[in-house]
Design goal:
about 20% helix; about 325 residues; 4 helices; DUF6588; alpha+beta; elongated
Length: about 325
């Protein structure tokens, strides 16, 4: 649903309240159409990236379902590798999609999502007799997204284990990515000694993670100042439930995981505000409207992992699959 009527109504109310005569009704309408187009574009541009962020944060949480000794600590350094699918790297636009902009020199074009390449086209429009001309935002232009993170776990009484992970802000081309979270695992095979005697283990885990992904967006300059929407952030809160089972073969452990999660998405624009904010609260208005594209989503993933012991060190790799494919390799030290 187009948002321009809502935007124009908000602007009109604001101007009436402020008793401003800086803009005509026509200019208000044009700005409303401009921001409506920006909302339409932002939805198709960033959602593939936030969907991918959930997968990146969902895997390799449980290094083993096996119960460890009480208060035993495990620290790990991991590298996560997300494989960007071709289907989520681009989308199509055409002039009929827009109310303010037109594609310069064309009626339609294929442009990158935040996960796409660096191709750009120009969009043009007219605001109060002044031409607004801007480049569409680039994607990260990477077939794989690689980021490191730290993991930690401490064995608690009664077969519980506290889990945590943290990554610093990882610089991507035209963006940044960060994830952190914590969870609780409980070993259930301890209640079945005959099963554990065969070196078979299983557990259940509940985990929360926070993902923050940001990208350069639309740098729009007007006679009234920069619109301050040159950065777009996706903030994701994810709750995971995971069932794990493993079979130990001497120093090697084969692990399978079933993961289901529920994610809540929030989108905001940011950037250095221009003088236009003295007259129109652009960022506030568009951020209020961005709540309308925020939807909760459920994902189901499978994961296979292998862990090999070398003294107190463990080398572990995993592959997770579902809508996307995500790989992980890590080195852990068990105190």
């Amino acid at each position: 649903m187009r948002k321009s009527g809502v935007i124009i109504g908000l602007f009109a109310t604001f101007f009436f309240t402020q008793k401003s005569e800086a803009q005509t009704a026509t200019e208000l309408e044009q700005i409303g159409y401009l921001l409506s187009d920006a909302l339409l574009y932002s939805e198709q541009y960033i959602i593939p990236a936030t969907d991918a962020a959930v997968y990146q944060a969902s895997t390799s949480w449980v290094n083993s379902p096996k119960k460890k000794s009480k208060w035993e600590v495990t620290l790990g350094l991991h590298t996560n590798v997300f494989f960007v699918p071709k289907s989520d790297r681009k989308f199509s636009i055409q002039n009929s999609d827009f109310q303010f902009f037109e594609i310069e020199g064309a009626t339609s074009a294929t442009v990158p999502t935040a996960l796409g390449n660096g191709n750009q086209v120009y969009l043009v429009g007219d605001l109060g007799g002044e031409q607004i001309r801007l480049k569409t935002p680039k994607g990260i232009d990477q077939e794989t997204v690689v980021y490191p993170y730290l993991s930690g776990a401490i064995e608690l009484p009664y077969g519980f284990e506290f889990l945590a992970r943290y990554s610093t802000k990882t610089k991507l081309k035209k963006g940044d990515y960060q994830v952190y979270g914590f969870g609780l695992k409980h070993n259930f095979s301890q209640y079945f000694p005959k099963i554990e005697a065969k070196n078979i283990y299983f557990s259940a885990s509940a985990i929360y993670s926070k993902e923050d992904v940001s990208f350069d967006f639309l740098d729009i300059n007007t006679a009234y100042g920069n619109l301050g929407i040159n950065q777009l952030n996706g903030l994701v809160d994810t709750y995971h439930f995971q069932l794990s089972a493993s079979k130990e073969f001497k120093k090697f452990e084969l692990i399978t995981n079933f993961i289901i999660n529920r994610s809540s998405f929030q989108y905001i624009v940011s950037g250095e505000t221009g003088s236009i904010e003295e007259v129109i609260p652009i960022q506030q208005v568009i951020n209020d409207l961005l709540t309308q594209i925020s939807k909760d989503k459920t994902n189901v993933l499978g994961e296979v992992s292998g862990r090999y012991q070398i003294s107190k060190f463990y080398v572990q790799s995993s592959i997770a699959f579902g809508k996307f494919v995500n790989g992980n390799i890590g080195v852990q030290y068990q105190f």
